[in-house]
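Q: Sequence in, structure out?
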Amino acid sequence: MSEQSKKTIEVRGFMHLDAAFRKKGPIPFIMELEEPITGAELANKLEIPWDEVEVIFINGLTYALDHEVHPGDRVAFLPPGCPGPYRLALGFYSKNQNNEANFKIKKKD
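A: Exactly. Output:
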């Protein structure tokens, strides 16, 4: 991993969020990140409303917005509306009343 990639993250969006990232520049959108932040903080920085994000993928694993993103990570935001069978395959199945993703399989680092 190059020194530059240790201070940046790759960010993508699925479904309608993809169009928002394409407006920011080439995909993947590369942004500097000096220290870890939560997915929610990253969404705020990128001006993505929380209700537009059901889960985030960090380095290919599924997490809720409270999970930390670290410099060098690959991140993708998935909005609500992913079809049922894919939800289970990706490791989540629904949102609860607090707009938080419910995970069938807990994935840890």
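The beta strands are 8-13, 29-32, 37-38, 55-58, 61-63, 68-69, 74-78, 92-95, 101-103.
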